[in-house]
Amino acid sequence: MIAMIILAGGIVLQFFVILSGVVNTSPVGNTYFLQTTTNDISGGSEFNNPTRWTFLALCGEQNGKNGMCRGAQAALPFDPPRNFGTENNIPSQFIGTNKFWYLSRFMFAFYLIALFFAVVAFFTSALALCFRLGAYLTGLNAAIALFFQALTASLMTYVLLRAL
Hints:
By secondary structure, this protein is α+β, with helices and mostly antiparallel strands. 51% of the residues lie in helices and 9% in strands. It has 4 helices and 4 strands; from the N terminus they run αββββααα. The chain has helices spanning 2-18, 80-84, 99-128, 132-163; strands spanning 34-36, 51-53, 58-62, 65-67. Strand 2 and strand 3 (58-62) form a beta hairpin. Helix 1 (2-18) runs antiparallel to helix 3 (99-128) and helix 3 (99-128) packs antiparallel against helix 4. The longest helix has 32 residues, at 132-163. The radius of gyration is 18 Å and the shape is elongated. 27% of the residues are buried.
């Protein structure tokens, strides 16, 4: 029963991360992956500085929360030349490569796969209370969710460390 509560809490937190950039209320409005000043970038001026990358939108910062977000789209790539439509004053590691675009898009897909298997594990955990087979299915689904969540975290860490 405690494992079900912890799993449910993890699923709620995954939804908070996915919905960041869409809603400006707490706690979702406080969630972002990277924040940077974009004063010198000629496409970053439409945001209040600093600019924040979320899963679904590029946002500015208003009163400590995400605000003035561009239209939300699924799997928003982390690729400053494409995000801002210019290569002027963009760090050189982003120029002429699609590496960050692909890594961030796969990161989103793997995150959705992890969320799917976590939800399946939550529903099969009710079977685990009654049947041993339910426990095996729950463990398998939770392990698959953990694998894809770890893969997502690794990709996100790589992208964000290379961005610094």
